Fold these 3 entries.
Entry 1:
Amino acid sequence: MYIEFVDHFCKKAIEETGSVKLSVIMPVYNEAASIEAIVAKVLASDLVQELIVVDDASSDGSRDILERIEGRDERIHCYRHRTNCGKGAAVRTGLSHCHADAVVIQDADLEYDPADYKALLAPIIADKADVVYGSRYLDHGNRPRQRWAYRWANRLLTVLSNYCTGLALTDMETCYKCFRREVIQQMPLEQDRFGIEVELTARAARMECRIIEVGIRYEGRGHDQGKKIGLIDGLEALHCIFRYW
Ligand SMILES: Nc1nc2c(ncn2[C@@H]2O[C@H](COP(=O)(O)OP(=O)(O)O)[C@@H](O)[C@H]2O)c(=O)[nH]1
Ligand SMILES: [Mg+2]
C-alpha cells in the first residue's frame, strides 16, 4: 500500500515538474563481496544521472573489481584515496564531483535498496523538501532485519540528536540521506568517519532545511558479513551530537 502510494506520488510529481536526476555517492572500503551487485542495482534506476564511487584504499580486491566494471556504463565515475580516510572523507570527495539536481549517499553493501530512490526523490521533485531521509523504522509494509544492539544504539543516537537539533527524526543514522545538491554542497563538512551522519543532520537543521522522512526497505548485515560500524563509531557519533549542538 505504502509503496503504491509512493509510486503514484512520484509518478505524479515527475509528470508535473519534469525530470529530476540523482548523483549517487558510494563510499567503498573493502566491499569486494557486494560491490558488483550494488553497482548494478544502482544503475538499474533511470533516476540515476551519475554514480560517483570513492574507493577508500580498499585492500580486498574491491579496487580491481571497480577497474573492471568502470567502463561498463558511462554513468560510473571512480575516484580513489591513497590511504584509508573514512566514510565522511569519501563522501566529501564524492561531493566535489557531483552535478545532478539531487545527491544521495549509497553504501557499497546490500543493506539498502536503490528501488527506494523514487521514494527519496519524490518530496524533492514535488518541492516539499530540501532533504529527505529514508527511515528504516517508518512503516512501509516490511519490518527491517537489524540486530538488536544496532537498533537500540540507533534509537539512542536519534533521540539525543533530536534533542539537540529540534528535529523529530525516527532514523538519524540512516545511510539514505538525499539532498538538493546546492544544499549539501554548501555545507562545510569536516567529519572524516561515521560522525558524518550526525554532522549532516546538524547542519541541515542549522540551515533550516525542509526535512522529510520516508519509509525504506532494509536488510541489515552483521560483522561476519562485512559490517564495519562498531562501538567506537557509536561513541564518536555521541561526541559529534554534542559538538554540533
Ligand atoms: N570510504 C570509507 N568507507 C567506509 C569505511 N568504513 C566503512 N565504509 C563504507 O561505509 C559504508 C557503511 O558501512 P557499514 O559498516 O555497513 O555501516 P552502516 O553505516 O551501519 O551501514 C559501506 O559502504 C562501507 O564500505 C572507511 O573507512 N572508508
Ligand atoms: Mg551498510
Entry 2:
Amino acid sequence: MDKRLPPLADKATRLARNRRFRALGIPYKACGRCFAVKPLSAFKRHTRYGHQSWCKACQRETKSTYSKETEYTKRNTKRRERFATDPEFREGEGKRVKEYRARRVAATIEDFTTADLHALWLEEGFLTLVTGGFLCVYCGREKAQHDDHIQPLSKGGEHSRANLAPACARCNGRKWAKDPVEWVATHVLTRGPNVT
Ligand SMILES: [Zn+2]
Ligand SMILES: [Zn+2]
C-alpha cells in the first residue's frame, strides 16, 4: 500500500475501526472514500445497514456515481425489452445463464437448443397440453414452467437433454425443499400418450 495513504485507507483496518465505534456506541464513522472520521450525521442513512460507507461530501463530489447508475438502468431496460420481444435473444440468454450455472458446479454440459430439448421430450413420450407446452412430469397436472434437472447439478447431474424434464413451479420448489435425489427416487416420471 502507498505510504502516503492514511492507515484507514486499508479497508480491513477501516471496517474494524467502524465495527469498534459501533460496538462502543460511538456515533462516528470513517468514510470509505476520504477516510476521514466523521459524525454519523455526515453520512446518509442506509435502509438496512445503518449508514452508507461514503460521507455526504464524498457522495456529492462523485456525481458520476449517479450517471453511472442511470447508464446501467438504461442498459438493463434495453435488455429487458429485447428479452420480451426477441425470441432469439431470449433463447440465447437462457442458454447462456443455464450453462453458466452448470459450469459453476463443474457439471458436464451438452450443447443443445430448446427445440432439441423439446424434440427429445416428445420422443420420450412426455405429455404435452392442447394449449401448448408440456405437462409437469412430477404431478402430471400442472403446465410445466421449468426445465428441471432430474439429477441436480449440485449432485453430479449433467446439464444435458437426458437429464432435463418439464416441471411446474410447485413441484420444482418442493423438490428443492427435500433432498432432491430422494425426491426423484420416490417420484415416477409421468409418461404416456399425449393428451388430446
Ligand atoms: Zn468522505
Ligand atoms: Zn408439478
Entry 3:
Amino acid sequence: MFENIDKKYLSVTKFFEQIINSNNRSVPNSIILHGPDITAQYYFALLLARGANCSGSKKQDCECQNCRWIRANEHPEILTISKINSKPDGDDSKSVISIKQINMIKDNIVVSSDYHRFFIFCDAEIREKTVDEENKINNFKFLNQQFPGSNKESWIPLGLTNKCFSGIVANALLKSVEEPPDNVTFIFLTENIENIISTIVSRSQVYYVPGECRYNCDYDYLIQLLSDYPNIDRKKAIIISDFLLKYSKDKEKSLTEIVMSIQTYLKDMLKKNTESIYLKQSILKSINNLQETIIMLKSNFKEQTVADEIAYILTK
Ligand SMILES: [Zn+2]
C-alpha cells in the first residue's frame, strides 16, 4: 500500500505497513497524526483505511471494491469528519465539528459492520488552493485519491484546532475513543498536538508526519540532531557544525533559514514543556543566542565560523 511514497515518510510508513500486515489485529483504536503537512496526513489516513479494508492485493493499484470506494472517497464506512463534512440532517453548524456529528458517530458504531470503520477528524475549507497547497496535493497525485464531498476539486484539508474541535465536543467523543467496538478507528489530524485535548492524546497512538515547516525546512533532521537537547555533549559540536554546513549545501538552504528552523523547533519544544524550568531557561537562552548568529550571517561572517557558533550554542 505504501509503494512509491517519499523516503522522508519512512518511519510512519513502516508503522502503518506493520499494522496492515498483522491482519488488522493491531490497528489502533485512536491515532493522532501531527506535523506541518495536513494534506500528507489525510492521504496517510486513507491509505491506512485502505490497507485495513482491502480484500485484494493490498497494493496501491488494487482494484477491489473497498480500494475503489475509498479511492473515490465514497466508502460508506470511511468518513471524513470536519465542520463541512459528514453533517447529519438538521445540523446547521458550519464553523465547528458539532455534538450532533459525535452523536451520529455513536449511533453508527453501536451497529456492527463488515468493514473496519474509520472516522478521520480534520478541519476543512472549500476555496481556491494556494500554490503551496496545490504542491502538497501534487506530491501524492500518483495515488489517484479523491477528496470528499461534491466540491472535490476545491476541498482543502486543514488541521484540527481547539476552535473547530472544542474540548466539549472532544469530550463527548472520549468514551468511544476509550472503548470503541472492534474494527473502529478514529484518526485526528493536526499541526500541533497541543490542539487535541490531553485525555484523547493519552489514549491514542501518536505519529509525526514530516513536512515543510514555515521556513521551508522539514523537522526530521532536527529531531535527530537535537534529540539530546539541552544535554548535547560539547564533544559533538564539530559533528553538528559539519552536519549543518553539509545539510545547507545538499538541500540548498541558507544557514539563516536553518537557524530560523532551529528557533521554531525550540519554540515548539518550549510550548510543549512548561514544567521544567531548566529546560525553559536553556531554550530561551539558545533562541536568543541563535539570533546573534543570524546577525553574524548578515554581517558576512564565514559560514564555517557561524556553523561552529551554532553548534557551540546547542551543546554544553
Ligand atoms: Zn484492495
